[in-house]
Write a structure and sequence with these properties.
By secondary structure, this protein is mainly alpha-helical. It is 85% helix and 0% strand. The protein contains 7 helices and no strands. It is elongated and about 95 Å long.
Length: 188
Amino acid sequence: MMHQWLNVLKEELNKHFYPDEVDDILEYYEEIIEDRIQNGELEEDICNGYDPKEIVREMMPDVLSKRTNETQKERFKTTKQLWTAIAQTSLKIPLTIMYTISIVLVIAMLFSIFASIIGSFIAFMIYGLDLFEAGLSNFDKIGMTGLALVLLSIIGIILIQIYRLVLELYKKVLNIFSGLTKKKGDLS
């Protein structure tokens, strides 16, 4: 009975969590069930007392708050799951609004960075065309092109650093709201 129930729980957990998270939760519940069996409770009664969907709902804030969100895939999955977890708290409207605004701001910053990079390259191309039509000597053209490349490189380095800062901000936003969801814990 216990192994069947653990398989049902595993299927439900796999829909929402990463494999290492699923393994941790399964170990936790297997230990709880074994302890309760050793205390004289019936395996069937114990397993019938736990609802796998309820376990997922209860574990969601705790699991999300422990994630590192290092990869883009993890950040997107956590973002989606946080909206679900926040919607289930008693403060769903204020938290959802704050979370949505935070995510929109981060996404807007990312788009601004990419637009700046593209704009810089377009400006460099236009500058290059204008430079070669200006009637300057080859020496002056090479010097001006070199200067433009140095400036483009500096702009690129600055934008890359800003991008890294925005990604760190994004991870912090995910961690803050994961923590808030965990603290509110009164999922209803």
